[in-house]
Amino acid sequence: KEARMERGTISTADGTVLATSVRQEDGSYKREYPAGELAAHIVGYTSQRFGTAGIEAAYNDTLRGEQNFDSFTDVVNSLAGIQTKGNDVVLSIDSRIQQAAQDALAGQVGAVVALNPETGAVYALASSPTFDAANYEELLTAAADGGSDSSELFNRATQALYPPGSTFKIITLTGALENNVATESSVFKAPGAMKIGNGDITNFNGRSYGEITLARATEVSANTVYAQLGVEMGADMLVKTAEDFGFDKDIKFALPLAKSLMPKPAEMNEW
Fold first, then answer.
1. pLDDT tens across 178-205, in order?
2. Are the C-beta atoms of 114 and 124 separated by less than 8 Å?
3. Nearest-CA neighbor of 242 among 258, 230, 225?
4. Residues 175 and 237 sit within 8 Å (Cβ to Cβ)
5. Which residues are catalytic?
6. SS3 157
7. How far apart are CA 64 and CA 62, in angstroms?
């Protein structure tokens, strides 16, 4: 039944087709992925043997023509049990930005995500190593037979956990400003290195900034200043602010997301 169904297409915002159904001589449809490696982790796959993944899974009902109908006629046909072509799905992904992200990751292990900060629209979501979407069946078969760990299929942009690094300073800063722990003009000592909680804190290249404001410390990403700020805030405030940003919470998204981790305040020491 599935092979007789013409699923809708999946394409990028700028019109690049990522998945489409091609009619065969016997009247069945074969799912093809003409963009190859482009956005392969996003589009996923649909297989009679292995099921669905990615957007193919998240929007399966839409692509099958059972949801998000294009017209009232499609609604009537669906209610009447009349098979129609599935509905198309257009992503916010820009193929040019996506390709640039994948090119930047080539030969490396990691991920790149590009967002519109005002709307949250995802312009690129790249994971490396990647795979040619047209060859997903071979990869899954090899993995099922124990001949491969199929690490190429692992979407590091959505399923892996990474330390946030200096991006976490924005969370620390927000909590400090909201709770009147400091202002942008508050002055801190910014040595190149210092100990906090018996742990070593160092600035990039060990650079010392003398005494600087919190605004300046944010400009230069001074670790020694932000470590002191975190201590002044305390564990409860730091964790609460992180949770306000979405840490330790399930985020609604079309693709499966790993939940970010933030320890409980009682489990944290000064370091």
1. 999 999 999 999 999 999 999 999 999 9
2. yes
3. 230
4. yes
5. 166
6. helix
7. 5
